[in-house]
Write a structure and sequence with these properties.
Length: about 170
Amino acid sequence: MKVDPAMLRDLLDERLPRAQVRAIQSAYKDADRFDKYVAILQQRVPWPEPIVLPFGEHLYIVAKGAGRYVIKCDCGQELGDYRSNWKLEALINVRATPAELAEIYPEKMHGHPDYNSLREYFCPGCLTLLEVEAVPPGYPVIHDFLPDLEGFYRDWLGRELPGGPA
């Protein structure tokens, strides 16, 4: 299914009917979809460095030049090298008491604080909520994934990684 930039913007902004979203998700992807998507994201951020890979909601891997890549938030706040755990650079709120959990869950619908806590990760620049983890108390900060930037660009996109080798 051929998806033009306007439709992709509407998809990104959640303005399409569910049936159309499903059709887009189920169809073969046009070869330039990634480039169209990144172009839309690039237009929405206030900084000039090129987005190499969307990393999550509000997060991007950005080329800083000379083979250097960082995680960056919408607002421009940098959260470290893309190979490091960006969560260690974020502001963290831990909900670990019944009262804290009751702020977001209906009565008796949250985990028991002895066995479950919620960690909320916020951008230190704009305070946007970036991720939430439900983990046992004391569990290490989860490093979600480490993308193979060079492999993605070489093997999937058929071109060189912008900004030099990682």
